[in-house]
Design goal:
Length: 399
């Protein structure tokens, strides 16, 4: 395909949405493209006169279930030029950590790489740094993939759990959005398929590598949890098998990776207790993984927005682990509380300040308090980062 600048040249362009991607797209077009016209819009689709535009570049967070030939996104445009240099990583949980770990390994082993996408860096911000040998490690959300009909040279689909049902309505629709990461790959491309990911109809000539749930190799990691061993095993395979890096150098590079904020991050100790921020946790499997990753006495802080997903797996876990204290709050916390019944290890309070205060009161000395909500933050906090920062402030404030 022609360069992005050539695709957009002399076109009537509408940037729909003005978040990080919208702003990055606007800046790129102003610097590198000669469009016929360029406008920015933040309203509803039915307010757009599509006849006025040749291309509509949509921000990922805007809900638009249907396909539209005029609508594209930054991800699809980036792949149109740099598909062959891109490792795309998606999944319900673990994609940010896996992306950051792969980027760290590539850089420490001497490869030129950029880290972009859902991790917080729009890909258009790095276009000027893309040389012929640059590897783009691209964390891809379901929203970024839904309107992309191109797939990266190396695709990773880590796992699949119920999430974003307020947007996609069914798990099947959610899966179909994420499946775009491999669905349009070309012969010679590589697809790493996670252990619980359904089949994706890939094209003939695409190499499919199924990743086992239990890694055959153990890695010396600074980040806790069995699930991070799984993430590391995929990074190891890509680094060694795709890019030909020395296996021992890859293992050494992994040792120095300290993880990302709000992902099983130890934020401090006070009053004889340790506090761990896992605010990124938005599904039951993430909270269960957090509980299993931290040894010893522990109290879990759970609850947030109720997206209507199935919490039975977490409810069963709570029932089976009476030795763990669970303090619930917000809409999903109320729902889980009703489903768990009158268990001695479960309490319901109003919000995060009350959860933190109660956790300090009931957790035995030497124990750990873990914020792992198993729910989105929306409606109570702007995002999971703000929720984690609020927890940090409560801990430092001695709540």
């Amino acid at each position: 395909m022609p360069l992005i600048s050539e695709q957009l040249k002399d076109k009537r362009i509408l940037i729909w949405g003005y978040g990080r991607e919208g702003k990055a797209t606007e800046q790129y077009i102003k610097n590198h493209v000669h469009p016929k016209s360029l406008e920015v819009f933040e309203g509803r689709k039915n307010e757009i006169d599509e006849d006025k535009y040749d291309v509509i570049i949509k921000s990922p967070g805007i809900v638009m279930p249907e396909d539209d030939p005029k609508v594209t996104g930054e991800t699809e445009l980036f792949l149109s030029q740099f598909r062959g240099q891109t490792v795309g990583i998606t999944g319900t949980k673990g994609k940010s950590t896996t992306s950051a770990l792969l980027y760290t390994v590539l850089k420490k082993c001497g490869k030129d790489a950029v880290l972009v996408g859902n991790i917080g860096k729009p890909s258009f911000d790095e276009i000027e740094n893309m040389k012929e040998d640059t590897i783009a490690v691209y964390e891809m959300s379901c929203h970024q993939l839904w309107h992309s009909h191109l797939s990266p040279h190396v695709a990773v689909f880590l796992d699949l759990y119920e999430e974003h049902l307020d947007y996609y309505r069914t798990l099947e629709n959610y899966f179909h959005a994420k499946a775009h990461i491999a669905q349009f790959q070309e012969p010679g491309d590589i697809y790493y398929r996670g252990c619980n990911v359904p089949d994706i109809p890939v094209r003939e000539g695409v190499k499919v590598v199924c990743v086992p749930e239990k890694p055959e190799i153990r890695f010396d990691l600074s980040i806790p949890g069995e699930y991070n061993q799984y993430n590391a095993s995929i990074v190891y395979r890509i680094a060694a098998d795709v890019f030909g890096l020395d296996p021992q150098s890859v293992r050494e590079a992994m040792k120095g990776f300290r993880g990302l904020p709000h992902r099983l991050q130890k934020i401090g100790a006070a009053g004889g207790l340790t506090f761990v921020d896992d605010s990124i946790s938005t599904i039951p499997a993430a909270a269960i993984s957090a509980a299993e990753s931290i040894p010893g006495e522990k109290t879990m802080l759970i609850g947030g927005m109720d997206r209507g997903i199935d919490y039975s797996e977490l409810v069963d876990f709570i029932r089976k682990h009476q030795e763990i204290r669970f303090i619930l709050a917000y809409a999903s916390g109320k729902r889980i509380y009703k489903e768990t019944g009158s268990l001695a290890n479960v309490r319901l309070v109003k919000d995060l300040p009350e959860q933190t205060k109660e956790a300090v009161r009931i957790t035995p000395p030497g124990g750990t308090v873990i914020l792992s909500p198993a729910s989105p933050s929306y409606g109570y906090f702007r995002n999971f980062e703000e929720r984690g920062d609020a927890f940090f402030s409560l801990v430092l404030g001695g709540s």
